[in-house]
């Protein structure tokens, strides 16, 4: 595992400077010759299989690390199990190893998605050739895996904590089911928003009719998980933008304030409950609602 982490660091050290140069010069040659692109382009590896294995291992390591963390945090379990076997140090080492491995896998996934984005720009500019080959974008592979294996959805969103790409993955997931709905539920006098923005997705849950239509395609529990994690990612991005002095994200639309997002999150969960009175709000959904309500109360208090 340490060798794998070293490999990821080496790939990152080569890729990041090249990607920055590409963004400045739009010269695809810099990325074509990157170690990451050369590795993914070789026919000696099964690219799709490798990416699926990375996702499976990432989620599996997270589950193991979470289990170890619970044992360490529980006084009863920790005292009975770890002290009895005198393996506290081993448990801590395994936890750290698993966390570092998950972080390394996340860095690999992010680099590949960044490469895919740059490759798409190069394709549009006609800078690529047949020699570059054809490769399925990692985003599509991730979406396929978490769509058809719902058991992987929650662990993946918990372990993958890079807010920009996390939000993009969730928006792409929703866009398969909400693109037309967002057009129908859009207010005629409001700003143009579609399912490619978080505000647009929330707009799809603005009434019971559209919410019920979505829950016929996606289970209510999956919707809760997606909305809650998207809200977390949006808040993280907002904090980063505030720290960087950025007033608003171009991708999110300047018309959607944080207060509006919080109101729409609460409205979305309320409409989910209206579609099924027996539906239980998941713990992560309760966290999102509590956070949204707290932000709204803070905003209201500040205005007063």
TrEMBL record:
GO cellular component: nucleus; Smc5-Smc6 complex
GO MF term set: transcription cis-regulatory region binding
InterPro entries on file: SNI1
GO biological process, one term: negative regulation of systemic acquired resistance
Superkingdom as given in the UniProt entry: Eukaryota
Signal sequence segment: none
PANTHER family: NEGATIVE REGULATOR OF SYSTEMIC ACQUIRED RESISTANCE SNI1
Record protein name field: Negative regulator of systemic acquired resistance SNI1
Naturally occurring in which organism (per UniProt): Salix viminalis
């Amino acid at each position: 595992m340490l060798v794998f982490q070293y490999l990821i660091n080496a790939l990152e050290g080569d890729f990041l400077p090249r990607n920055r140069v590409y963004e400045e010069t739009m010269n695809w040659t810099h990325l074509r010759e990157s170690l990451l692109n050369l590795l993914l382009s070789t026919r000696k590896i099964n690219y799709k299989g490798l990416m699926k294995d990375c996702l499976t291992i990432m989620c599996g390591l997270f589950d193991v690390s979470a289990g170890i963390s619970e044992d360490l945090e529980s006084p009863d379990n920790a005292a009975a199990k770890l002290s009895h076997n005198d393996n506290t140090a081993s448990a801590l080492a395994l936890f750290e190893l698993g966390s570092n491995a998950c972080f390394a896998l996340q860095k690999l996934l992010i680099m590949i998605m960044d490469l895919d984005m740059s490759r798409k720009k190069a394709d549009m500019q006609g800078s690529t050739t047949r020699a570059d080959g054809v490769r399925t974008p990692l985003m599509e592979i991730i979406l396929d895996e978490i769509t058809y294996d719902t058991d992987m959805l929650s662990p993946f969103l918990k372990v993958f904590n890079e807010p920009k790409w996390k939000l993009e993955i969730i928006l792409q997931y929703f866009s398969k089911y909400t693109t037309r709905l967002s057009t129908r539920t859009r207010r005629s006098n409001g700003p143009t928003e579609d399912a490619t923005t978080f505000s647009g997705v929330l707009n799809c849950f603005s009434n019971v009719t559209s919410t019920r239509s979505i829950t016929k395609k996606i289970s209510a529990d999956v919707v809760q998980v997606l909305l809650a994690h998207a809200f977390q990612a949006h808040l993280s991005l907002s904090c980063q933008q505030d720290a960087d002095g950025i007033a608003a994200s171009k991708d999110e639309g300047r018309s959607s304030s944080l207060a509006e997002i919080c109101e729409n999150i609460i409205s979305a969960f309320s409409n989910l409950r209206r579609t099924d009175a027996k539906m239980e709000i998941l713990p992560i959904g309760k966290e999102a609602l509590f956070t949204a309500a707290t932000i709204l109360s803070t905003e209201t208090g500040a205005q007063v």
